[in-house]
Amino acid sequence: MEKLISKYFVGGESFGLDAYEKDGGYGAARLIFDKFDAKGLIEEVKKSNLRGLGGAGFPTGMKWSFVPQNTGKPVYLVVNADEGEPGTFKDKYILWHVPHLLIEGMIIAAYANNVHKAYVYIRGEYTEPYRKFQQAVDDAYARGYLGKNIFGKKYDLEIVVHRGAGAYICGEETGLLESLEGKKGFPRLKPPFPAVVGLFGCPTVINNVETLSYLPFIINRGAEWFAKLGSEKNGGMRLFCVSGHVKKPGVYELPLGISLRKMIYEIAGGIREDRKLKAVVPGGLSAAILSAGEIDIGMDFDQLKAAGSMAGSGGVIVLDETVSMVEALMVTMRFYAHESCGQCSPCREGTGWVYKILSRITGGHGRSEDIHNLADICSFMGGTTICALADGAAMPLRSYPQKFRSEFEAYIREKRSSEAQQPGYESAGSEIKRGEGVGAIL
Ligand SMILES: Cc1cc2nc3c(=O)[nH]c(=O)nc-3n(C[C@H](O)[C@H](O)[C@H](O)COP(=O)(O)O)c2cc1C
Fold first, then answer.
1. I want to staple 234 with a disulfide (CB 3.0 to 4.6 A). Which of 8, 188, 216, 256 is the partner?
2. Is the CB of 425 under 6 A from ligand 1?
3. Ligand 1 contacts CB of residue 53 (under 6 A)
4. Binding site membership of 94 for ligand 1 (Cβ less than 6 Å)
């Protein structure tokens, strides 16, 4: 299978400016100025069916077409490099291995949206990827690819690199904008959407690192070619981050729409120690879980949505039969309770309550009404808040007990507890060592 972005993921190599140019790098950025006007470029990206790869899967070209021009205000481009969704670790590969690819994608997006100042918001913990990216920005300035009259054309583009401070909520686009403006990362009510009122009150395009990194390929090889690589209305490939209990975890670049079964059993080598598959989180922790019987599905935005889950950020977490789904949910909800920004009561209180209930259950003190209570709390968490963090928490909260109800019931009835599932514990009559499961990966 042909590799696009991931052809640059070679061992410990980071492609500097010379190496990138030797491979044809910045060819697309040079080409756009002669081949397209801004509108024509947006049409080309629309034709490619490129979807936003940060989580929501919104069609990229369409998003750009919402940006009002001639408002008298500047239009900004903001790159979301916060990569906070658990199970997702692809953007750091791009920042580290091939930072110039992102810069080239940014030049293309900037030109399409008449942007002259762009910001990159990088996850605080990504120290080395940040250094590599900042070096690449400095090198691009030095060679005249950023700054005034880039590539000798009448076009200016500045890039500012900004480091986050480790909050999941600052990956949410409006929380990110607040943080970039120097405030607490509290998400904003939408509408107005950032395309219309974004950074410093100006129209703003926000895209994920990977989304923008596909643009040079689309320009070089054509929108139709890119669209055909994927499935209907889901153009191209994406970087799937496969983790958990597979034999070969890693970042795999595969066409959108690829079968999940194929991804797990052929590409990622199958389940470790040839155990049984139990469940899969198909698109980052906030995606509804799929049971082992649901893996004959195409991994694209539309097919996963139709199955009640989501393609999200491309984080595929594979769980084998050793995992306790009750404990997995407890660990998952601990994350959301910790990361809720606290602005909206359903999210602030809801995530805290469910985490407390799940902690009680996994402490061996579950009550028979707990499963009902979890579902009840879940029913007011989704769709009632400023941002989608609570919706993201509601997806696992609803789907784990729905798909593994008997396991939740047995856990409570038998008063099991997670202390009994520390490494080294063997459940009576079973070959399966407890504690190797979810704690090791979440
Ligand atoms: C709680 C929350 C966290 C998010 N974290 C990220 C993130 O770390 N990186 C990202 O690209 N998008 C993240 N998103 C999605 C962004 O809000 C936004 O949709 C995305 O950056 C748009 O870029 P795209 O269209 O290229 O995907 C998050 C959304 C939510 C609700």
1. 256
2. no
3. yes
4. no
Asked which of 278, 304, 320 is the last residue of a domain, the reply is 320
Could you tell me which residues are beta bridge partners of residue 433?
A: 426
Ligand 1 probe mutation, 208, 310, 335, most atoms within 8 A of CB: 208
Q: Could you tell me if 345 and 310 lie in one domain?
A: no
Residue-averaged pLDDT of the chain: 94
Output the residue whose Cα is nearest ligand 1's atom 22.
207
Q: How does pLDDT run across 189-232, given as a tens digit for each residue?
A: 999 999 999 999 999 999 999 999 999 999 999 999 999 999 99
Contact status, residue 292 vs residue 277, Cβ threshold 8 Å: yes
- What CATH number is attached to the domain comprising 329? 1.20.1440.230
d(CA 137, CA 148): 14
Reported as a single tens digit per residue, the pLDDT across 239-254 is: 999 999 999 999 999 9
Residue 437 pLDDT > 50:
no
From 80, 95, 178, the mutation candidate for ligand 1 (largest count of ligand atoms within 8 A of CB) is 80
Residue 162: CB partners within 8 Å, gap ≥ 6? 119, 120, 121, 122, 180
Inter-CA distances, 139 with 106, 119, 154, 307, 358, Å: 15, 17, 20, 46, 51
- My answer on whether 147 and 125 are in the same domain is yes
